[in-house]
Specification:
Largest sheet: 4 strands, antiparallel
Number of domains: 6
Radius of gyration: 33 Å
Number of helices: 32
Mean pLDDT: 78
CATH topology of the largest domain: Na+/H+ antiporter like fold
Helix content: over 70%
Strand order of the largest sheet: 1-8-3-6
CATH class of the largest domain: Mainly Alpha
Number of strands: 8
Low-confidence stretches: 832-839
Length: about 850
């Protein structure tokens, strides 16, 4: 091919990509549908000019277009990794984990069901052998991420619906391509009835091996990129190499799924890189990948569309009946998952429910495109596949892909609108009115200041202010309407606005480099969760999300188990340090939200709502402070180290700002400025290093602070501190079960527990104990104790406890008081066999 013609074709393709997006916007059609149409027209036009006798001038161009080196490997090894990798960088993985069950069900189970449904439906027509039919089923069962993700991101669809669609389209490629490789091998070897069990047993290995490969390669890439802090272009270049290396290593070396390797690498970089790269470097990297993915997605559709006339060559009328069979079977399989399996999982509480309107959109949003055509092309390229199988595979895959792109793609936007998913709900509509009213009030104040500073003509200002005041009055009146929004919803709106302000404050701290990128990423995820749960659960959802943000969930329980039982302290140390830093940042952010309530929310929702929000905020601040107090008690010097680190980072930020101002004023030149900034960055690297947390609890200090041990002499307290065993607990952990043998007594150094016995529920906090009556009684435990929060217990065995009881009058009185709280008459303590111990 002539280099000039090739360059002209490439430039034309870029021109079509550039003009396709505004054309799609004007026609209100998905961008990828427009690209597919342009590609088909280009292919048909090239065929026409090559075969027509009207002119031969365009024959070289037509031949060049039709002879472009479009192979299946170009799609799978060049374009697909780019698309998948960019999508993973833009995902909010923490929010997507909330819907991991429906996502995996659609991405894996639905792919298998669709493959079998389409395969057996074709087999019953007698058109092809079973293995060839299953091969076609695997080809048409995958939704195309380049077709799906861009469409749903451009639609005004609910966030949750977009997350489910994006997650499915990301992961189902791996499942479909793995099944494709399995059936392709059987067809090429001519095996009519193979044993499926051993082959399907490799399926988890393909997925797990790919995920592990992607994680390892991404971790190495992050280490290399973090060492190139002074070379931002080099960092971006390393990231460009990452998905391709992961794909090739997984496919060619490990023998696993390259698609899953790319997804695993992207997700790993998404989670790890923000904490290792500078904010500017991470932003630049994502912008570069946005551009690369835009080009790759456009080219993959243009080039794949060029193949459509070639793949449909030789189609017969009966073939289109088979296309209808494939279409109906694919829709039936997808519908069975959406209306059969997902509701069952929701009833069993294994999955959050998926609304009916969402399921309709997911059913119609399962578009096929370039990946389906690429897999079909791989079959037509193989000479080891029978000719009839190659012909029908190309026709059926192309026909089905065209149906989804033209019919589904063109009608997806009207469907979303018809389902009411594009409309704002009552709360969102009220929130929009609130935003407009608050924004206009702020604009009025700023315009007044600006006009005064510029000394504009009073008549002009007065006439413009009159029109603006009318618009402002209308906006405030709309926001204050009581007919369309109840007080409960007003509280929800206020909480959403409060959570949004919290998110903005975190972003401001991050931009000013007052907090690390890693901490900011986690805090933004918590703020997003706060907003989402408040939208769905109102005040209750806000409280629940606020409690979860204290960092007392499942990972902490697992880390505490590893530390207590297996002496593996690393995970608990990291999680505790993260929690310490997160709580300090939350305290900093929450202090500034009271002003936001008074300045913004009170003007729209009134005094009553504002006071309620102040109360909720105050309660949340108390919970944060209590959690911090517990951590300070365990690690008294660590909070001070973190606060010193914050002060050092703040000072460096001010210093950097001062150097920039001096350069702008011309007082220092660029060379001196670069030198000063380089020295500052070296100091910043030292200041940003988080101090290491030592999990060793200072038991002697804790014993000194226990009122129960106040009457013990110093020597006894020192021996007691050595005898006490430390136990870390997490919220929700069962600390003591009913009917279990009593072997020790627990003293609460920090945190709180709940004790249930004989229909009673007691809450115990710092400085109290439990298990003492069970130890002193010959009977088994009657109470069950559960941790209400993260904390530390100091445990003493039965023998040492009895010995201590005889020494401490305060401890004996505490035992008597606990018996009274439990409804046990002190006179009956002798009947429990504890009279001698406490008397």
């Amino acid at each position: 091919m002539d280099i000039v013609i090739a360059t002209a074709i490439l430039a034309t393709f870029f021109l079509l990509i550039g003009l396709g997006e505004p054309l799609a916007s004007r026609l209100r059609l998905p961008f990828n549908v427009i690209l597919a149409a342009l590609g088909v027209l280009a292919g048909l036009g090239a065929t026409f000019f090559l075969n027509t006798e009207l002119t031969d001038a365009l024959n070289p161009v037509a031949e060049a277009i039709l002879n472009l080196p479009i192979r299946s490997n170009v799609f799978l090894y060049v374009f697909l990794p780019t698309l998948l990798f960019q999508v993973t960088l833009g995902m909010n993985l923490r929010r997507m984990l909330d819907d991991w069950v429906p996502i995996l069900t659609l991405a894996v189970v639905a792919v298998v069901v669709a493959t079998l449904s389409v395969g057996y439906a074709l087999y019953f027509t007698g058109a092809l052998p079973l293995m060839a039919c299953l091969l076609i089923g695997s080809i048409v069962s995958t939704t195309d991420p380049s077709a799906v993700v861009s469409i749903f991101r451009n639609l005004a669809a609910p966030r949750r619906l977009s997350r489910i669609i994006e997650g499915e389209s990301l992961l189902n490629d791996a499942a479909a391509i793995a099944l494709f490789g399995l059936f392709m091998g059987f067809v090429m070897r001519g095996v009519p009835n193979p044993e499926m069990g051993p082959a399907l047993a490799r399926f988890p290995i393909l997925l797990g091996g790919g995920a592990l490969t992607g994680w390892i390669v991404a971790q190495l890439a992050v280490r290399v990129m973090s060492g190139l802090a002074r070379f931002p272009l080099a960092q971006v270049t390393v990231s460009v190499a990452l998905p391709y290396l992961a794909y090739i290593l997984a496919e060619r070396v490990v023998g696993a799924s390259g698609v899953i390797a790319v997804v695993g690498a992207g997700l790993t970089l998404n989670l790890a890189a923000p904490g290792r790269l500078s904010p500017l470097a991470w932003t630049n990297l994502k912008e570069v990948w946005d551009l690369l993915a835009h080009w790759a997605g456009a080219f993959i559709f243009l080039l794949a569309a060029l193949l459509i006339p070639r793949l449909l060559d030789g189609a017969r009328p009966f073939d289109f009946a088979l296309v209808a069979v494939v279409t109906l079977a694919a829709f039936a399989a997808r519908g069975a998952i959406l209306w059969g399996l997902l509701p069952i999982l929701a009833r069993l509480r294994l999955s959050p429910p998926v609304e009916r309107s969402y399921r309709v959109a997911i059913l119609w949003g399962g578009l096929r495109g370039a990946i389906t055509l690429a897999l079909a092309l791989a079959v037509t390229e193989s000479l080891r596949v029978p000719e009839e199988v190659r012909r029908l595979t190309g026709i059926l895959a192309t026909g089905f892909a065209l149906f989804t792109l033209i019919v589904q793609g063109a009608t997806l936007r009207p469907l979303i609108k018809g389902l009411g998913l594009e409309k704002l709900g009552p709360i969102d509509a009220a929130l929009a009115r609130q935003v407009v009213a608050v924004a206009l009030q702020t604009v009025r104040e700023e315009v007044a200041e600006t006009t005064e500073s510029y000394r504009l003509t009073r008549e002009t200002v007065r006439s413009e202010a009159k029109g603006f005041a009318e618009r402002l009055d209308e906006a405030v009146a709309a926001a204050e309407e009581n007919d369309s929004i109840q007080d409960r919803d007003r509280i929800t709106l206020g909480l959403i606005a409060l959570a949004g302000a919290e998110r903005d404050h975190v972003l401001e701290l991050f931009r000013e480099r007052a907090i690390s990128a890693r901490l900011a990423e986690r805090a933004l995820g918590e703020a997003d969760r706060l907003i989402e749960t408040t939208r769905t659960g109102g005040r209750t959802g806000y409280r629940r999300a606020a409690r979860e943000s204290l960092g007392q969930g499942g990972p902490t329980r697992l880390a505490a188990f590893l530390h207590n039982r297996l002496s593996i302290s690393g995970p608990l140390s990291r999680l505790t340090a993260d929690r310490f830093e997160m709580l300090l940042m939350q305290r900093l952010v929450l202090r500034d939200l009271d002003d936001f309530i008074d300045a913004r929310i009170r003007r729209i929702h009134g005094r009553r709502v504002a006071e309620l929000l102040h109360e909720l905020l105050e309660r949340r601040a108390e919970q944060v402070e209590q959690a911090l107090d517990g951590l300070r008690l365990q690690y008294p010097g660590y909070a001070e180290e973190l606060e010193r680190r914050f002060i050092r980072r703040t000072a460096l930020r001010f210093e950097e700002r001062e150097y920039a101002a001096l350069r702008e004023d011309g007082l220092i030149g660029p060379e001196l400025h670069a030198t000063l900034v380089a020295e500052l960055e070296a100091r910043r690297a030292e200041a940003e290093a988080r101090p290491k947390l030592d999990l060793a609890v200072q038991k002697a200090v804790l014993v000194q602070q226990f009122p129960l041990f106040a009457d013990l002499d110093e020597g006894v307290r020192r021996r007691l501190a050595k005898a006490l065993a430390t136990r870390f607990v997490a919220a929700g952990e069962v600390l003591q079960r009913r009917d279990a043998p009593a072997r020790s007594v627990s003293f609460i150094a920090s945190g709180a527990v709940e004790l249930e016995t004989a229909g009673q529920t007691l809450r115990l906090g710092r400085g109290e104990m439990f298990g003492q009556l069970a130890v002193l009684s010959p009977r088994r435990r009657r109470a069950e104790v559960r941790a209400l929060s993260h904390g530390v217990l100091l445990e003493l065995d039965e023998v040492r406890f009895r010995r201590l009881l005889r020494r401490s009058k305060a401890l004996r009185e505490a035992v008597r008081d606990s018996a009274v709280k439990r409804g046990i008459d002190p006179e009956r303590l002798a009947a429990l066999g504890v009279a001698e111990a406490v008397g």
